[in-house]
Amino acid sequence: MGIIGLQRGSITMALTLVGVGLYAGAAYFSFVAQVPGTEGVFLRPGFAILPLVGIVLGPLSGFATGFLGNALADGLTGYGVTTAPLWHVANGMVGLIAGLLVLRLRSTKLWMDNRAEISAVVGIVAIALGFLLVFGDIPISGMTPWEVLSSEYLPTVFWNGLATAIGLPILLQIASAAPRISIWTRLTTRTAG
Question: What span, in angstroms and rounded, lies between the C-alpha atoms of 190 and 84?
């Protein structure tokens, strides 16, 4: 691995850690608005940060941002870092899946012409797939599949999907406009395929 590869790796790691901090901070400040009738589902407008990191920096950065950011937010709010490990993994899977879904797509004309719309769809699909892991709460919590579906999975997918559909295209435009991140996005796009 040459100097360029080491620089890219260092920059990716630094930006991933920034993503973890932003996601944890946004989640921390979201823990005040629980969705009524749910088991710990909160309105999280900053959720769009998670698929953004997966899309811009790649699947591994997306997973790290979701897993570490959610664990850090749980720790900061007093829930405890180890309270809901499945939810940490589910958040990580959202970033991983979003990154995987656009890995080859980012270098196409279709992506360049429609990235706002595609990123919103990718984010929602990643949420729907990633949060399937919360069904692992069934043996842990003693909840029925219907209870998990109605009080955890569907509200999480709906509210995080709404935040992502609105926020992700906006954040992607901001990231594309920021000179350093925009340059980095072009570099990683060339090496993604």
Answer: 37
The predicted pLDDT at position 5 comes to 53
Return the HEC string of 35-72.
CCCCCCCECCHHHHHHHHHHHHHCHHHHHHHHHHHHHH
Domain limits, the chain: 3-192
Does the structure show a pLDDT above 50 at 95?
Answer: yes
- Mean pLDDT over 121-129 rounds to 96
Q: Which whole number is the average pLDDT over 118-136?
A: 95
Query: 65 is written with which tokens?
Result: 């941002």
DSSP letter assigned to residue 142:
-
- Show the beta-strand stretches assigned E in the chain: none
Name the fold adopted by 3-192.
Arp2/3 complex 21 kDa subunit ARPC3 (1.10.1760)
Give the integer Cα–Cα distance in Å for 20 and 62.
9
pLDDT attached to residue 82? 83
Neighbours of 43 (CB within 10 A): 16
Residue with tokens 């870092």: 81
Residues 6 or more apart whose CB falls under 8 angstroms from that of 56 comprise: 15, 172, 175, 181, 184, 185, 188
- Give the integer Cα–Cα distance in Å for 111 and 163: 21
